[in-house]
Amino acid sequence: MTTINTTTETTIAPLFMNSLDLLNHWQGHRRLTRRVIEAFPEEELFKHTIGGMRPFSGMVSEINSISGPGVKGIATDVWTTINEMDHHSGKSEASSKEELLRQWDAVTDEINTFWAQIPEAKFQEIVLAFGQYEGEAYGTILYFIDNEIHHRAQGTVYLRSLGIEPPAFWNRD
Predict the structure, then answer these.
(1) What does the alpha-carbon distance between residue 98 and residue 114 come to, in Å, rounded to a whole number?
(2) What CA–CA distance (Å, rounded) separates 124 from 121?
(3) Phi, psi at residue 132, to the nearest 5°?
(4) Residue 171 lies in a domain
(5) Is the model's pLDDT at 2 over the cut of 80?
(6) Can you point out the beta strands (E) in 30-162?
(7) Could you give the angle at which helices 137-161 and 19-39 cross, rounded to 10 degrees?
């Protein structure tokens, strides 16, 4: 909702949550995805696949390569391009579960650091993410969250195929 006061200033009200609420929502998803990573036996994290999909470690690498640099791009207007990223190869840069979790935590810190630098009005501005996706910054962030949920669901299926009960999808504490 946009309101205009008598001095012709425009105030932008949050659509349904403020930016801190959105960050907290996303961080809940990140905590859950971290638990999915933790649930994998190390050897299966890097090699188990179904139907030609990538190992879950490669999916996690993709999430990391989009999320941290994406928030940094929104905050600074400095973007890498998709062509500069190697996450679609299915390979993870990490060689152990411990290293993958360390990378995950570093990206979480990067998200928090750059999120704090994003002015509230910036979430409504049009950005060109990674040289390919143009839309409002908040919509771009929702894409980052959707991408994570999508790949976490694939990881959940992998865990079930290994006979491992995945973390409850609703528990984001």
Answers:
(1) 24
(2) 6
(3) -130, -40
(4) no
(5) no
(6) 126-129, 133-136
(7) 20
- The continuous run of DSSP H or E covering 150 comes out as helix 137-161
List, for residues 14-51, the tens digit of each pLDDT value. Answer: 557 899 999 999 999 999 999 999 999 999 999 999 99
Look-up: residue for tokens 């990573």? 37
- Domain residues for 153? 17-161
Q: Please check whether residue 67 lies inside any domain of the structure.
A: yes
d(CA 42, CA 1): 48
The answer to whether the beta carbons of residues 87 and 65 sit under 8 Å apart is yes
Domain of 101, CATH number, reads 1.20.120.450
Residue 4 covered by a domain: no
pTM confidence score: 0.86
Per the structure, the count of domains in the chain is 1
* In-domain check, residue 173: no
Reported as a single tens digit per residue, the pLDDT across 87-143 is 444 456 799 999 999 999 999 999 999 999 999 999 999 999 999 989 999 999 999
